[in-house]
Write a structure and sequence with these properties.
alpha+beta; Alpha-Beta Plaits; 2 domains; nine-stranded mixed β-sheet; 5 helices; 20% helix; isomerase; PsdUridine_s_RsuA/RluB/E/F_cat
Length: 205
């Protein structure tokens, strides 16, 4: 797995990234979704954001694209309603399948955790001891202490609420959980609730 495969996954299809606000649902499985705060409802032309370094490329490649009329945009990996941050939507079903299944455990995701309680050495010790959650081994997980109320998790696995469960078992009360990176795709300065096109020179890995 490398540069060429990551490049091929995004070829010839529209892919966007979005900064999901807290309380929004990544996906809904019922017919009352119109009553809910859905991330998909944020994918509108007025919510488009263009980073300074992408202005020229975005104009020439996507100037005629009406994102509201782009069919079959699939979300690649969800965030629970109480979490925020980076989501990827793509038309590329191959890319979607690779991210969700084949390479699910091979692409590192990065999260910033803010806590209610001050993080102690005992909390950090417990975190390192709880690398089994719901009977599943947590591997290739790096936890960085930033300050008394901030941790950074770099993790490959993505099963349901894995970080929240690890923190709960370690007596850490999460105030916010924000995803800032999936592989080589960074959220950077994308404002909350905004989306942008992924550029041809950006790849997952």
């Amino acid at each position: 797995m490398g540069y060429s495969k990551g490049k091929d996954l995004l070829k010839n299809k529209i892919t966007i990234i979005l900064n999901k606000p807290k309380h929004y649902l990544s996906i809904s499985n019922d017919n009352k979704s119109y009553k809910k705060l859905l991330v998909r409802n944020l994918i509108r032309n007025e919510n488009k954001y263009i980073q300074e370094e992408h202005k020229c490329m975005s104009y020439f490649i996507y100037k005629n694209v009406n994102i509201e009329k782009v069919p079959n945009l699939y979300v690649c990996g969800r965030l629970d309603a109480n979490s925020s941050g980076l989501l990827i939507f793509t038309q590329n079903t191959l890319s979607n399948n690779y991210l969700l299944y084949r390479y699910k455990y091979n692409i590192e995701k990065e999260y910033v955790i803010k806590t209610y309680n001050s993080i102690t050495q005992e909390n950090m010790k417990l975190l390192k001891e709880h690398f089994y959650v719901d009977g599943k081994l947590i591997y290739k997980c790096h936890i960085q202490y930033v300050d008394n109320f901030t941790l950074i998790f770099k993790i490959y696995q993505g099963f349901h609420k894995i970080i929240r469960k690890m923190c709960m078992l370690s007596n850490i009360k999460i105030k916010s959980l924000h995803r800032i990176r999936i592989g080589n795709i960074h959220l950077n300065d994308l404002p909350i609730g905004k989306w942008r096109f992924l550029m041809p020179n950006e790849y997952f890995f």
